[in-house]
TrEMBL record:
<keyword id="KW-0678">Repressor</keyword>
<dbReference type="GO" id="GO:0008270">
    <property type="term" value="F:zinc ion binding"/>
</dbReference>
<dbReference type="InterPro" id="IPR036390">
    <property type="entry name" value="WH_DNA-bd_sf"/>
</dbReference>
<feature type="binding site">
    <location>
        <position position="91"/>
    </location>
    <ligand>
        <name>Fe cation</name>
    </ligand>
</feature>
<dbReference type="Pfam" id="PF01475">
    <property type="entry name" value="FUR"/>
</dbReference>
<keyword id="KW-0804">Transcription</keyword>
<dbReference type="GO" id="GO:0005829">
    <property type="term" value="C:cytosol"/>
</dbReference>
<dbReference type="InterPro" id="IPR043135">
    <property type="entry name" value="Fur_C"/>
</dbReference>
<dbReference type="GO" id="GO:0045892">
    <property type="term" value="P:negative regulation of DNA-templated transcription"/>
</dbReference>
<dbReference type="InterPro" id="IPR036388">
    <property type="entry name" value="WH-like_DNA-bd_sf"/>
</dbReference>
<dbReference type="GO" id="GO:0003700">
    <property type="term" value="F:DNA-binding transcription factor activity"/>
</dbReference>
<keyword id="KW-0805">Transcription regulation</keyword>
<feature type="binding site">
    <location>
        <position position="139"/>
    </location>
    <ligand>
        <name>Zn(2+)</name>
    </ligand>
</feature>
<comment type="similarity">
    <text>Belongs to the Fur family.</text>
</comment>
<keyword id="KW-0479">Metal-binding</keyword>
<feature type="binding site">
    <location>
        <position position="142"/>
    </location>
    <ligand>
        <name>Zn(2+)</name>
    </ligand>
</feature>
<feature type="binding site">
    <location>
        <position position="102"/>
    </location>
    <ligand>
        <name>Zn(2+)</name>
    </ligand>
</feature>
Length: 145
């Protein structure tokens, strides 16, 4: 999907939710849409400063928090990075495969895995507020290298 169509879809969802898709939030969203894999906040901040020289760490963190709350991005907890969710128009379980060699992140959506994980947590009396399952390894492209 093109960056423009992703931005249009995100803008429509924000209007639907009564949320403000400000120019800074849109710029950060565009940066995420134009890159694949995980990106750290400071990496994004440096890119944002090319068009917004006055941007500070708080600027990027507020934008990332908003984009996460809207379901537009996933936080990769193990590397403290963020990636665009390609399926943000519907709520879905997310499992991430992270290549330790090239940094590519593949998003999976297994309802079966999600249900089993939730069932096991519930059996232990654990109430999940947010979950992203991450697995690290070597992707197909890097495996042959």
């Amino acid at each position: 999907m093109s960056t423009e169509s992703l931005v249009s879809k995100a803008r429509a969802i924000c209007e639907q939710n009564g949320a403000r898709f400000t120019s800074i939030r849109e710029k950060v969203f565009r940066l995420m849409a134009e890159n694949h894999g995980g990106q750290g906040a400071y990496e994004l901040l440096e890119q944002l400063k090319q068009t917004e020289p006055a941007a500070k760490p708080a600027t990027i963190y507020r934008a990332l928090e908003f984009l996460t709350e809207q379901g537009f991005i996933h936080k990769i907890e193990s590397s403290n990075a963020f990636m665009l969710c390609q399926h943000f128009d519907k709520h879905h379980p997310a499992q991430l495969l992270i290549c330790e060699k090239c940094g590519n992140v593949t998003e999976l959506h297994s309802a079966t895995l999600d249900a089993e994980f939730s069932k096991l947590a519930s059996a232990l009396g654990f109430h999940i507020h947010r979950k992203t399952i991450e697995a690290r390894g070597i992707c197909r492209q890097c495996h042959g290298n």
